[in-house]
Amino acid sequence: MLNSRTWSAVLVILMVIFTRSGAAAYEQMGENDHLILYVQKDNLAIRVKDKATGYTWSSVIEELVPRENNRSWENFMSSGLAVEYYEENRTRLIRTDLVSAQDVEIDLTPKEQGFSAQVFFSSLGIHLELQVKLEENQVVVHIPHDSIVEEGTVRLASIYVYPFLGAVRKGELPGYLFVPDGVGALVDFADNKNKFNVPYEARIFGDNEGLTSTTASEIVKPPYTVKAPVFGLFHDSEEHGAHGIFAVIEEGQYNARLLAYPNGVVTQYNWITAKFHVRETYLQPTSKTMGGIIVYEKRPNPESIQVRYFFSHGKESDYVGMAQTYQTYLVKQGILTPKQLVRDNTPIRLDILGAETENGLFSKRLVPMTTFEQALEMVNEIQSLTGGELMVILQGWNKGGLSGTSPYEIRFEGGLGGKRGFQELVSSQSELYLYTDYGVGYGEAKRFSIRSDAARRLNKTTIELPTMKEVYDRFYLLTPQRTKEIVSEDIPLYKKERIQRLAVDKMSYTLFSHARRDEVTSRKESAQYYQEALDLLKDEMESVVLYEPNAYLWGAADAFLDIPMHSSQFAYFGKTVPFLPIVLRGYLDYYGPYANFFANQRLEMLRLVEYGAFPSYYLTYEPSYKLKYTNSNDLFTSTYEDWRDVIVEHYALTNPVLKQVDGARIVDHYELAEGITAVEYSNEKVILVNYTENDYVHRSLVIPSQGFLVRGVSEL
Question: What is the arithmetic mean of pLDDT over 26-39?
Answer without folding.
Answer: 98
